[in-house]
Amino acid sequence: MRLKDQFKFVRQNMKKNRTRLFMTILATAMSVAFLIVLASVGFGLHKSIVKETLERRIVTEIEVPGKEEPNNGFRQLTNEDISYFEEIKDVKAVTRRKNLQNYRFEVDQHQTNAQAVVAHMPSETKAGLELSDGRLPKAENEVVVGFHFFQDLRPNKEVTEELYNEKGQIKEKFRYKGELVGKKISMEVIKFEGGKEVKKPLEVTVVGIRKKPTKEWIYDNVVFVSEGVLKQVEEFTGTPRGMMKDPNNPDMELPAIPADQYDQVNVYAKDMESVKDITAQLKENNYPSYSVINELKDVNVMFTIVKAGLIFIGTIAIIIASIGIYNTMTMAVTERAPDIGIMKAIGANPKTIKKIFLLESSYIGLIGAAIGTLVAYAISFIVNFGLPLIIKQAFGEEPPEGLVFSYIPYTLPLISFIICYLVTILSGLRPAQRATKVDVLRAMRREV
Predict the structure, then answer these.
(1) Orientation angle between helical segments 292-335 and 337-345, nearest 10 degrees
(2) DSSP 8-state symbol, 244
(3) Distance, CA of 154 to CA of 164 (rounded, Å)
(4) Which of 64, 246, 369, 398 has the most CB atoms around it within 10 Å of its CB?
(5) 333: closest CA among 441, 426, 430?
(6) 445 by DSSP, 3-state: which?
(7) Directed axis angle between helix 411-436 and helix 292-335, to 10°?
(8) Which residues, in sequence order, are bridge partners of residue 118?
(9) CA-based Rg of the chain, rounded to a whole angstrom?
(10) Residue 7 CA, distance from chain mean position
(11) d(CA 98, CA 383)
(12) What does the alpha-carbon distance between residue 239 and residue 226 come to, in Å, rounded to a whole number?
């Protein structure tokens, strides 16, 4: 019998008892939909957490806090280390910063407190620093300020009413209204001398404003100053990085800080795939490092275990549904005993008879899997659309922006189809084997 005829024979037989066939396919579809929807929760939460992590951090950024030396312990990084990092394959940029104190900055009767940071602007630009207005510094008295520096400027005199609104922001009428780029601002440096506080204003010019952070919770009011400004601060204070001595202990010795020592060093890879190799090389040379890829690795392992467990639970539902397929196929063998007898009488090969019943069980499984997949996609859409509304109305809580409760990648239906197909084949195997052992004479007399 040709394969085409076998398929035709199977379809004809499946039409003989449509109610039983419908209930069997329905049970299979429900089990497949249950598997996909259950596992999609794991995939959805995994996707949401990974997306949130990637948005919070630059995926190619590698933080290097220092170097571990066998004899000298842990030390800060210097220009020698920076040069080594820049020679590593697939490294795009190496940023280095020196952190100063928080200083008060004044401009046109307004003031704010912000941290001054000495940054290497060429490497910052390579790493992706962007400006919303202005340009990069060219002279030593030029600075770039963070996006929120402008919003933080407040009147430097007493006001008669509340300065801040209910969101903790400076009210619009008290904010600085002028143009900041090109404006000269005063950076107030402080030291203690003879038990008294001595102040010196350093005049710098704002030439650029950094781009607004991608996340609302990121607060950027840092002021990027030059090495020239750092030198002026150190000459006035007489301390490294402008550190302030304890006024109660003026003879206290402050730690010496080399001029080429950095407080914060970040290595940026050319692409995400290069991060793993770079961190491995850093580790081999006693440079501890951290990157978001390391965090994602642990997250991925955890969610792989969760998704595997959910798929296993869903598979149990398919196995339970396979009992119905086994029952359907067993009854089909009994009902079609005369047809089997006729096929044997005209010389049909037992393998062909077995194949026909396996084809029928496969039909049931695959049709059920297809219907179940469509139902799962519909449920997933309803869950993602309706659950946030339910949470908001019932509990008064706003779900995190971009949270995905259910996500169905193309691999999940594929896995479900494979599991369903294997289970249905196993369910139909025993009835198919029984069909090959039907006695011709008994079958003709309907005694099976």
Answers:
(1) 80
(2) P
(3) 10
(4) 369
(5) 430
(6) coil
(7) 30
(8) 98, 225
(9) 36
(10) 47
(11) 49
(12) 17
Length of the chain in residues, anyone?
A: 448
Nearest 5°: CA angle at 230, between 228 and 150? 95
Give me the amino acid identity at 370: A
User: Are 8 and 354 contacting, i.e. CB atoms less than 8 angstroms apart?
Assistant: no
Compute the C-alpha angle 392/398/401, nearest 5°.
130
Beta strand 73-75 with 142-145 is unpaired
Question: In this predicted model, what pLDDT tens digit does every residue of 324-364 receive, in sequence order?
Answer: 888 887 887 777 677 767 777 777 677 777 877 788 788 88
The DSSP letter of residue 178 is S
**Distance in angstroms (rounded) separating the CA atoms of residues 43 and 377:** 13
Q: List, in order, residues 6 or more apart from 62 with CB less than 8 Å away.
A: 266, 267, 268, 269, 275, 278, 279, 282, 289, 290, 291
* CB 184, CB 204: distance < 8 Å: yes
pTM: predicted TM-score of the whole model, two decimal places? 0.62
Q: Virtual CA dihedral for 41, 43, 46, 52, nearest 10 degrees?
A: -90
Task: For residues 27 and 30, give the distance between their C-alpha atoms in angstroms, rounded to a whole number.
Answer: 5
The one-letter code for the residue type at 299 is V
Distance from first CA to last CA of the chain, Å, rounded? 24
Question: 187: pLDDT confidence band, cut at 50, 70 and 90?
Answer: very high
